[in-house]
Structure formats: structure tokens, C-alpha cells
Request: fold
Amino acid sequence: MTQNDAYISIRNVNKFFGAFQAINDVSIDIHQGEFFSLLGSSGCGKTTLLRMLAGFEMPTSGEVFIDGQPMSSVPPHQRPVNMVFQSYAIFPHLNVRDNIAYGLRKQKLTRAKRDAMVDEMLELIKLPEYGDRKANQLSGGQRQRIALARALILRPKVLLLDEPLGALDKQLREQMQLELRALQKTVGITFVFVTHDQEEALTLSDRIAVMADGRDLQVDTPTRLYESPVNRNVASFIGTMNFFDGKVTEIADGTASVDVKGLGQVLTTNFAPKLRPGDDVCIAIRPEKLNLTESEPRDVGNKKQGQMDKAAYLGERSHYYVRLNNVSQPVAISAQNLQRAEGTPEEKRPVWISWEDNVFVVLENG
Amino acid sequence: MSSKSYIRRPNRPLQIYAAIFLIVLYVPVLFLPLFSLNDSIYVKFPLKGFTTQWYVELFNREPVWAALMNSVKVGTTTSIIATGFGVFAAKAITRYRIPGRGLLVGFIMLPLVVPGIIFGVALLVLLSQLGIPLSLYTVTIGHVIVSLPFAIATMIPRFEGFDPSVEEASADLGENAWWTFWRVTFPIVFPGILASLLLTFTVSFDEFIMAFFLSGTDPTLPMYIWSQLRFPREFPPILALASIILLVSFILVFIGQWINRDAQAKTLANEEE
Reply:
């Protein structure tokens, strides 16, 4: 009995390991067919939450619903979910075919039918020739695919993935990300994906829950998480962010005027409805939304002179750090290198930064 | 890292020490097969001549065969019971969060250090209080206690060597605890089970003190050997028997260790990581 159409509903879940609180009053709804990620650094509780969905951990309080059914009394082997483990957990004593067919025992299929299903899975994961290999003759990427096939062959309603790409090298990981996303679209199963890699979460997910210290800080689409993070923790966890102190001077027609220390008046429509004139706020801007010029830009109202502190050339783009008066941290700016670069940029020279309206976001304090 | 790291490089004094160690340990034992082939009823140098008559005599002696059968019966039963307990004890010790795990393991391993004579006397007192007559069954009880630590010590590296998420994966794929044990846990730890069966059989087969206190009218093979030591005329065939036991024990333990070798290699590899 859930209050909405959520397929998986995590309701006020707490989890204690002794005195340590791993999950702190988390409530999350996940919809059918969604690619949902739990994102956070290690120890934030994301894996514990995933293991609760699988049934390997029990909430200390609260309840998990899957398809409207409360799960607290349902053991792992009776849940409509399957998991891809971080270590892949391939059965070492079985070959690839027997690993994939492992969960089919109860379905009492004929041998021909079972073989056909396994063949179909081997085709899906693009390893048709590998059926007779033993687990120890496989690479990390192959093990990962077999772990996937072993879970998908049971047609679960939900597939749980615990950092399945963590052990792969960068190139293979990017390839597997694309394949995973394509696979999810093909099979139409709800994916719950645990990762500490923010880029991976942004690339793959329909929605992401950002977690820290056992709490869900923000549950949102990748775009909204990046463009409108609710607080400083989320903003600094995803991408790079410049933070400034400011005071709201006026709110009119949905636009807030903020007096920002070191920058002057800034206009933005990105703020929470409860914001009031006179509030002290933290205001933030992404490095790529600031423009950097050698000379004072004309026809731009929002600009400030500063001094170049450091510059790093990264090929397709460069990172710059500019010092402003009255601002303690240098401001990070990221710019695409549209022109051919010659030599190294000179440091400690005066530069101008400028910005458009509405690129700043006002964060909730905390 | 080069293959000759600090800890791995050849160490001459250590090699000499090891050689002396092995000589002191095993040369006295090697006198048994030597004198069992000597054509004299007295165990002394110089050797008189080569003979196999003691072996022939041994094979014609009825009580030897009866004692051997007793020992095989007791050893087989002991190894199955001790290994059965050992599997579940090792699984519990390695898999579950048990408060006071170290204490528990120490307690289980206690029979290794408590003198057999104390266990023997204690069991004898207990059994006679309960009015249970001494027989091969009571010997078996004693042997299970003595060999249990060996079974557990053999099984623990097996369980530590495999990823517990493999068992979780089985549960996740729809198998309950019973099927998970038979389809995953048992096949993976099977070499350890074999090794444990062989080792505990050997422990029981060679055991004397418990058998001395707890056996009734049917002697086990070590009991029989001991009873024959009083008669000089009977001694050379006993040497022949001891030589055979030595050889068989060595082969069994060697096979057991060889079957279980990859578990030990894995444990070592894990420690090096």
C-alpha cells in the first residue's frame, strides 16, 4: 500500500549497525522502467540501501515496498529482484552456461527450452562462444556481462547493480555504460544502480539520489542536480562549483536580486520559494558559465576584474583560477579551447570575468 | 617487485637448520622399516640379513586383521562425524558475526593442547557414571573430540578462500539456504571436505591414549601393537606393521593436503594482497 504510483517505495527507512547509523530516515520512490542511481562517496549508505532492496539487510525501522508489497518479511530468494554484485559473484565451480542457467532450476524447463534461453542471453551479452568456459578463464568485463545475464534470464521486475563497472578500466567502463543503458531500454526493467562515479550516474540515469552520511540529499534528474542543486553538499559532490556569500536585497517577478560579496549585484531566477529579502545565502555558479576575457568586455553588464592565479591546459578545455578582491577562494573557470593554443598562458596577469543573468543558483543553507 | 625480495632470498643457515630439523625428526622413525626387514628378533646393530618373513608372519596373524578392521571402522565413523561437524563449525566461524569469535575458536581447538590422558580419564569417568559399557562406540566418541580441531582447521581456509557474495548470489537467484548449500557451498568446499576426511581418519587410526581408556574387549590397531610389546618373539612383525601404518598414514595425509592445496595457496595469495 503506497500512496502513489511508485514501483519501489522506500519509506522512512533507518538502519543501525550497532551504534552506527548507516541509513538515516530515507524515503525514495522509484518508478517502473526507470534507470535510477544511488550516488555517493563510500560509506554513505548507498550499498546498504541496495542490499535492503535485495533482502540481505533489514531496515531497523521503516519499510520497503516493491510493487505495492511490503518486503520486510520476504527473504531474498522470494523477492522479484535480482542483483549484479560488485565482485560479480560468478560461481567458480560452474561454467558460463551453468552460471547463467543457475536460477532456472525451479522453473522445471525442458533441457531444450533452457538451452535456448541461455543461448539467447549469451547472444544478448555478446559472448556466444563462451558457454563452456570456466569462471577463472574470463576477464573482468566478461564476468560482469555474465553476472548481468544470470540476473536478466529470470526476467526480474527490478535489477539491482552494485558498482558493476567499478572494477573495469576506463575505456571498457565507458563502453559498458553505453551497453548497459541500451540494454535497459531493450528489456524495459527498472534498474537501481549504485555508483560513486558522478559522471557515470549523470550519463546513465533517468533520476539520481545523491546520498551522504546515510541521508538522501536530493533526488532529481541529472540536469536538475547539475543546474539546480539544493544545497552545498550536492553542488560540490557533482562537478565543480564556485560558492559565494551573499544577501538577498529584493525579490520581484520571480527574480531575486542578491548582493554577492566580491561580485556586486547578481540577478537570478534559480532559488527556493521560501527565500525572503534580507536572507543571508550561499550562491553558486558552475565554472563553465563564467566567461574569461583579457580586456574589459563591452555590452556586458555583469563583469568584474581580477587577477589570473593559475591556468591548466587539458586539451579540449582549459581550467583557470582567478583571484577577486574580497573573495577568499580563487574562482574556477572552465573554457573550451575553440582556437588553437600557442605556448602556455601567462600567469599573474589582470583578466576580466563576466556572466549572464540567471546562471547563478541560490542554495539552501546547510 | 623482483622474485628475490628481502624475505624470499635464499638463506643458507636457515636451510642447514631445516635439514637438521628433518633429520632429527624422521631418522628415528626410519629405523622401523629398517629393522622390520632385518633377519633377527632383536632390534640391534649390526644388521644380520634381509628378510620379509615378519611381513609374511604378520599377514597370517588373525588378531592383527581383527584389530585393523576395528581401527578402520572407528576411523571411518570418526572422520565422517568430525568432518560433518567441522563443515558447519567452519561455516559458522567464517560467515556469521559471532560475539567472542576468537574465544570460541580457541575453545574448539582446545583438544589439540589438553593432554589426551585428561580427556581420556574425564570421558571414562563420565561414561561409567552414565553406565555406558566401554566398546568401539566409546572409542569413537573420544576420537571425534580429538580429531574435530583438525577437521575445523582444514575447513576454515576453504571457507575463507571463497567470496561470501557467491552464496548471496545464489539466494538472490531464488535458492533457499538448503539448496544454496548443496549447489554452491558444498561443491566449492568439497576438496576441503575430502582433505578433512583423510586427515581425521589418520588421526583416529593412530590414536592410542583415548583408545586405551575407552576401548572394551575389541582392541584398535595401536592397542594391539602395545599389547604385543611384552613378548620379544612378537616384536619384529610389529615393526613390519608399524612400517605399513607409517606408509599408509603418510600417503593419506599427503593426498589430503594435495587435494586442498589451492585453498591454502588462495589464503596465502589473499594475505599478500
